[in-house]
Amino acid sequence: MITIEEMAVVDANAAALGVPRKQLMESSGRAVARVVREHAEPDDDVVIVAGRGNNGGDSFVATRFLDAYDPTVLLLGRAKTISTEISWENWVALNRGEYDIREARDSRDLDLGTPDLIVDGILGTGVRGAPREPAHTAIERINESDGTVVSVDVPSGMDANSGTVASVAVDADHTVTFHDMKPGLESPEQSVTVADIGIPAMADTLVERGDLLRLGRAPNSHKGDNGTVLVIGGGPYTGAPALTAQAALAAGADIVRVACPTAVAETVQSFNEGLITTPLTGDRLDSDHVTSLLEAAAEVDVAVLGPGLGAHDESLAAAQSFISSFDGTCVVDADPLGVVPDAADTDASLVCTPHAGEFRRMGGDPSDSWRDRMDDVRTLATDLGVTVLLKGRYDVIADGSTGRTRVNRSGTPEMTVGGTGDVLAGIVGAFASVLDPIHAAAIGAYINGRAGERASNERASISPLDLIENVPVVLDA
Ligand SMILES: NC(=O)C1=CN([C@@H]2O[C@H](COP(=O)(O)OP(=O)(O)OC[C@H]3O[C@@H](n4cnc5c(N)ncnc54)[C@H](OP(=O)(O)O)[C@@H]3O)[C@@H](O)[C@H]2O)[C@@H](O)CC1
Ligand SMILES: Nc1ncnc2c1ncn2[C@@H]1O[C@H](COP(=O)(O)OP(=O)(O)O)[C@@H](O)[C@H]1O
Ligand SMILES: [K+]
User: Fold this and answer.
1) End-to-end Cα, the chain, rounded Å
2) 190 and 277 assigned to the same domain
3) Residue 158 falls within a domain, yes or no?
4) Counting ligands in written order, which one lies closest to the CA of residue 156?
């Protein structure tokens, strides 16, 4: 089962993997034609009713596979308003091939005749609101006809996520949907074929630029408004929480606060005047701080616990007690990862970002190959009921509640330098304020790796600050 939004991600990831949408459209159209042939008699009169988007494009392709029926194509609207390039190219092919094609300029041009079979390629997943004219009338004419109706992807006028109909929808006899079942198509009255259109399985698994669509913007557009983040860290190390906090800002968080021991607050502040620090008395985190930290964390969208916190027993006990009592979203990195198994009964939604050594401390056993790591990470995530991002050459990310597992390939060997993990935690924190944990972790790893690639193109070695500098750049790329 796949939603329209998820389908758009997978489709864009397939393109990133070298399978462009026009190729998918060819497979979609061919799959539609196959179902048409199953339901048509040799001399049947076949009419194809097409809209101006890619749903229409699929039906233009289908037309070329239905030559035996000498089909008629009725385009709803003027050809020059066809809204996508690949659909236009397939329309041009019908023109050049001397197919029987017609443009219905308005609802008066909508005589369908008495076809035995109608292909409905008017509106697919791109429908917005109630069908306008001439689509509205065309849908009514199709429903009045006695012919068998085969719908492309979704019955036109129906929302494929919810099955709801804004005003009218095609009453399809058969629907040919693509790649995976859509939630709204599940009803006993419908016969649905799910066609494999050649989207590689890895378009689901690998994190690619299509995943950026989840940020609620086109992959090429600008950063939107994100949420608020509280970084809890520092003590023995001052650089780490400052890097995490700056990375969260770079990834688009609106406000980033840092709760750190008094002894390091001034140093953290000096890194970036945009950071707001909340000093904790003393020189390391201890149990006396937990109550005030829980109050501060309740005020933000996401807490990031761990950068530079150190491994003192008192600090780890405080971290465990914080995790146990917290009920929001918390990214856990570095030393506190070891206490996660003892705090796994928490109501908090945890996103854990271990490297291989920390993964072992959490009770996992990472294999050498990333394919095997997919099982290892899924197992630990499921056992603990958390999201896990295991860092490495290929990062492996799994969601403990659904078992969904992703792999990120971006990054460069130069990123083994210290501090890149702190940057990653901040990026994931910023994204976790606007996305589900699995998506925040996956896109965080992807963006961190892309920033590293870009930084290492410019210099022989890279620092964590180079990464941070490149985060907004790769987000806009
Ligand atoms: N995703 C995938 O991976 C794959 C998707 N594929 C296929 O692409 C389809 C989605 O294509 P899509 O995005 O071009 O949208 P689509 O459904 O043709 O509608 C857009 C057109 O309809 C119009 N329009 C909108 N609302 C309207 C209204 N209320 N009343 C009237 N008109 C309305 C809108 O016009 P506009 O509003 O822009 O003027 C525009 O012209 C999908 O269903 C599947 O078939 C496959 O090829 C392979 C893989
Ligand atoms: N050899 C590598 N190739 C690609 N990316 C890497 C490599 N080593 C580390 N990274 C990336 O660097 C980031 C930090 O990972 P790591 O260095 O393991 O963290 P830490 O700083 O906690 O030790 C991760 O996003 C990871 O994907
Ligand atoms: K349709």
Assistant:
1) 31
2) no
3) yes
4) 3
